[in-house]
Amino acid sequence: MDDEKMKFCVDTNKNNSWYIGTNDYDSKMINKFETVMFQGNGYMGMRAAAEEKQLHEQRDMFVSGTFDAFPNEVTELPNLPDLMNMEIQIDRQNLSLKDGQVANYHKYLNMKNGELTRTFDWFINDKRISFKYRRFISMQNKHLFVSQVEITSVDDELNIAISSGIDGRQSNDESQHLMEGDKRLYEGQYIQMQAETQQSHIDFVFNVRHKLYIDEVLLGAKPYINMNRRQIFGNYDVDLQAGQTLTVIKYANVYTSIDQDVPKDTLAVDSVAALKRASLCNYNELLQKSERVWNKDIWQKNYVQIESEDEKPQVAINFARYQLATNTPNDPRMNIGAKGITGEGYKGHTFWDTEIFMLPYYIFTMPDVAKNLLTYRYLGLQGAHKKAQGNNYQGAQFPWEAADPTDGETAPLWGSADIVTGKPMKIWSGFIEQHVTSDIVIAIMDYLNATGDQDFAENMGYEIILDAAKFWSSRLEYDQERDVYEINDVIGPDEYKEHVDNNAFTNYTAQWCIQRAIKVYNLIKEENPELYLKLSNKLNLETTYEAWINQVNRIYIPQPNIEGIIPEDDQYLARKQLDVTKFQVNDQVSTIFKSYNLTQINEMQITKQADVLLLIYLFENMFDDDIKQSNWNYYEPKTTHDSSLSQSIHSILASDLGLADEAYKFYEMSCETDLGVHVGKAIRGLHMAACGGLWNMTVEGFGGVRMDNGKLRIEPHLPASWQSLKYQINWQGSVVRVGIADEKMIVQVIGDGIEFVSHGQEYQVPANAKIEIEVPVEETVMD
């Protein structure tokens, strides 16, 4: 398999796998590059739009957790005032790359430190001006954004006029969430705008200060201030001689009333004081502070090193880890949106994407972050109870889409137009896609197995498991004739199948969830009577436990037929078959909806993403190899892979089945989900689950790391085009470093000794030691 098959929209660098960039100014790709070169720190995020306004741009900036809603609409993250803006005039001519002549254009992101750089020469009125823009969002100070532009007059004197400040005229698809508050200037230098969300009443304070230098000499000029509706700008006028460079540093920060590091009633004053302190440092000094946090808190904890014939695999895994770091809030009241904070897609809402596709990365590399993400679900029990009660169920029915954890369900009711009827299609996921409740329990058990975090288990984890099982118990429907409990009228992971009965994934995981709850019940009753009494009173466990025991072994579990095929649901195998080859296009556009509507697709054997195969991936010990292979052979050709969640599961499962070519094909497809040449859905933001999936394919698939009945298993499947793979994980409090090359695997432990399994044999690595073992040849070569 040739790595060169991967086609990226950005240029890469063989000598620097942290680099993505472009030398082309292509107006058609503006939104794509804005998304791919996104900057953030988990608290706030900003698309990589240019400082000057451009046609078709999307100038989005978000702060995590600041949800707001309009009447009869679901809550969403508000698009915040623009802080990156900087309008420049050269001799009264507005800087615009569509005018004049542009040469030496280069825009690139350094993913190792999050710095975005843009350089070009602009020729206007027979004058050549050199521009160099740099900017970053600080990892050291979560509120801080810093940008710098250097403008050099190459061969003539210039007059430069700059207008820069805070522009509150931003919206979410033309909806304005912010009510304008006070605007003012502090000490002749610090520009401030205050605002408040309309429904959630979250206060914002935005501050900006500029420093101007000519050839490193600080200018003392104070700005002339313009205040317009939702705008406040500082204006500067500078004359530049030939050969001189004007440097403008823009310091900006954002604070909100839900922040926990500044008192709400002193936000305005404290935020200005914070910007004063930050602006005592120059751009490079602040960047270095941010870089130290990147290195210490992120890169040292989760390194992955791929030696291959091409740099793209390493670039892709660096990109995935960078985007996860910049989009994951370090606050348990918040979670990762399906598109992070990279765009308006999915309104900043959290899905099961976190638990199944992103959490494995955090469980194995930064367990403290994984704990925060699971704590969010504990804080969401109130909303889960609200949803369950609204549907006449008991326990915790977690929302399909979640925003503020206490809100409950936030999924929209209507989607795009039906190709046949022309009417908006109803979105049923918020009503009947219920497996998310089991997905959360799966993630909790994985976290507990990998970390042994008993404190989390007793304070939060066990309660979620018991409460989720209580929901499933109330959700089961008894079929008296067959003496079984069913789960009818659901959507499984395959969202092309609505209103189905007994979806295999849903039924299997519901039963598994109740089985876990029974074990937790018996464990705490025997070993922690105080906790048992607390949770029993809270959840009425005595009565609930009796129901579990009565139901658990009579839940209907779809079994493999004579060909070994597990029915995706009661209706699937009887539906009409269709060749879906022409719809398996990796451009992030659901082309099948150009030919059929969802009602028609619902009546065909067409699958959107891994469903039965996801079940086999997550619960591999339930199925023998023949069953796994039979279901792969049956379902993969029927899958369009329209969801970015699909490729990683198929790749890992293909590795398990020894289908090396297939495993790498889906790996390449996943790498191209956001980095590929297609524009696709990039204007709406990145696919965060695909980022998590890239790590999963690399470390779990090719690196062979899995949790097997609570034990660590390492069985690599290295692609033929990779010479070696090295990665680091955490296991039970110890750091485990794995290196795979030349049919050998070295496992090194930093911390307490560990045990792991490889190809049926158990190995022990003593504390602060390493061992070397042989890797079977068939596991390291590609078919």
From TrEMBL:
<keyword id="KW-0808">Transferase</keyword>
<dbReference type="InterPro" id="IPR012341">
    <property type="entry name" value="6hp_glycosidase-like_sf"/>
</dbReference>
<feature type="domain" description="Glycoside hydrolase family 65 N-terminal">
    <location>
        <begin position="22"/>
        <end position="257"/>
    </location>
</feature>
<feature type="domain" description="Glycoside hydrolase family 65 central catalytic">
    <location>
        <begin position="319"/>
        <end position="695"/>
    </location>
</feature>
<keyword id="KW-0328">Glycosyltransferase</keyword>
<dbReference type="InterPro" id="IPR005194">
    <property type="entry name" value="Glyco_hydro_65_C"/>
</dbReference>
<feature type="binding site">
    <location>
        <begin position="352"/>
        <end position="353"/>
    </location>
    <ligand>
        <name>substrate</name>
    </ligand>
</feature>
<dbReference type="GO" id="GO:0004553">
    <property type="term" value="F:hydrolase activity, hydrolyzing O-glycosyl compounds"/>
</dbReference>
<dbReference type="Pfam" id="PF03633">
    <property type="entry name" value="Glyco_hydro_65C"/>
</dbReference>
<dbReference type="Pfam" id="PF03632">
    <property type="entry name" value="Glyco_hydro_65m"/>
</dbReference>
<dbReference type="GO" id="GO:0005975">
    <property type="term" value="P:carbohydrate metabolic process"/>
</dbReference>
<feature type="binding site">
    <location>
        <begin position="608"/>
        <end position="609"/>
    </location>
    <ligand>
        <name>substrate</name>
    </ligand>
</feature>
<dbReference type="InterPro" id="IPR017045">
    <property type="entry name" value="Malt_Pase/Glycosyl_Hdrlase"/>
</dbReference>
<keyword id="KW-0378">Hydrolase</keyword>
<dbReference type="InterPro" id="IPR005195">
    <property type="entry name" value="Glyco_hydro_65_M"/>
</dbReference>
<dbReference type="Pfam" id="PF03636">
    <property type="entry name" value="Glyco_hydro_65N"/>
</dbReference>
<dbReference type="InterPro" id="IPR011013">
    <property type="entry name" value="Gal_mutarotase_sf_dom"/>
</dbReference>
<feature type="active site" description="Proton donor">
    <location>
        <position position="495"/>
    </location>
</feature>
<protein>
    <submittedName>
        <fullName>Glycoside hydrolase family 65 central catalytic</fullName>
    </submittedName>
</protein>
<dbReference type="InterPro" id="IPR037018">
    <property type="entry name" value="GH65_N"/>
</dbReference>
<dbReference type="GO" id="GO:0030246">
    <property type="term" value="F:carbohydrate binding"/>
</dbReference>
<dbReference type="InterPro" id="IPR005196">
    <property type="entry name" value="Glyco_hydro_65_N"/>
</dbReference>
<feature type="domain" description="Glycoside hydrolase family 65 C-terminal">
    <location>
        <begin position="706"/>
        <end position="765"/>
    </location>
</feature>
<dbReference type="InterPro" id="IPR008928">
    <property type="entry name" value="6-hairpin_glycosidase_sf"/>
</dbReference>
<dbReference type="GO" id="GO:0016757">
    <property type="term" value="F:glycosyltransferase activity"/>
</dbReference>
<comment type="similarity">
    <text>Belongs to the glycosyl hydrolase 65 family.</text>
</comment>
